[in-house]
Design a protein that fits this description.
The chain is of the alpha/beta class. The protein has helices spanning 14-22, 46-57, 67-70, 88-100, 117-129, 156-160, 180-186, 194-199, 219-222, 229-247; strands spanning 35-39, 61-65, 107-111, 132-136, 151-153, 165-168, 204-207. The chain contains 10 helices and 7 strands. The strands form 2 sheets. A 5-stranded parallel β-sheet has the order 5-4-3-6-7. Strands 1-2 form a two-stranded parallel sheet. The two termini are 13 Å apart.
Length: 251
């Protein structure tokens, strides 16, 4: 059994292998007779459901474990608890591949809070596959450990011009409620709306969900023909299945 602790830790070629497995329907039942523990540190709906379905499709039995039952850093140290990947970056790039036909050279703009786990995983994944990623965020919210080759700008218009994909995430994540007012002020100019998408011409829109319509993205953009968020959400299950099959040794 292999490990998948971080996108950045994948060996050469593994990311492409997982994406290829994600698009296959003939993976068999490599998890038959096995239980798969799904431990989440925060409340989860889409990721949990997608991963549970992926385990079942591969013949395994998913067991959801709540954070209180795991007790990371209370009952056990973090080093003693197996870490899992939410598969979001895999789902993102599988969607990009489906939309524009390739990953190498794909032009992706991420607008908003760039110093979070979504932007970090996306940046690591883009570097692995040769996609061009530009992060647009206010000063103080840039990705602190951006890998070499990822570009950061302050102006969201500069980021989206020429982009094929425009991506955003919520401005206030779980556990940041006490910062909500300051964050809403800081990101007010970073909303993905019809005006910003017009500067991206024919770009598709992505969001990892859940979205707060009227904050980081408008309802019109979410429901536009250029929105691929529902395909992106569906791809969570496919990429979870592909990643689990890769971990089980399917090639």
């Amino acid at each position: 059994m292999s490990d998948l602790l971080s996108i950045a830790d994948l060996p050469e070629g593994a990311f492409a292998e997982i994406l290829a497995l994600s698009e296959r329907a003939d993976l068999g039942r490599p998890l038959a007779g096995k239980g798969v523990a799904l431990a989440f540190q925060k409340p989860s709906a889409r990721t949990r459901n997608s991963t549970e379905m992926a385990v079942v499709q591969l013949g395994g039995h998913p067991v959801h474990i709540q954070k209180e039952e795991v007790g990371i850093d209370t009952r056990e140290s973090a080093a003693d608890v197996a870490r899992t990947l939410a598969f979001q970056a895999l789902a993102d790039l599988l969607t990009v591949k489906q939309l524009i036909g390739r990953l190498e050279g794909a032009r992706i703009a991420y607008v908003g809070d760039a110093d979070n786990n979504v932007a970090r995983s996306l940046a690591q994944a883009c570097v692995l596959v040769g996609a061009e990623l530009t992060l647009a965020s206010p000063e103080g919210y840039a990705l602190s450990d951006a890998p070499y080759g990822v570009r950061h700008v302050v102006d969201p218009v500069e980021a989206v011009e020429g982009a094929q994909i425009v991506y955003t995430d919520v401005w206030v994540s779980m556990g940041q409620d006490d910062e909500a007012e300051a964050r809403l002020r800081a990101f007010a100019a970073y909303q993905v709306n019809e005006g910003l998408m017009a500067r991206a011409k024919d770009a598709f829109f992505l969001h990892c969900l859940p979205a707060r319509r009227g904050e980081e993205v408008t309802h019109a953009v979410m429901e536009s023909p250029r929105s691929a968020v529902w395909r992106q959400a569906a791809n969570r299950m496919h990429t979870a299945r592909g990643a689990l099959a890769w971990l089980a040794g399917v090639r």
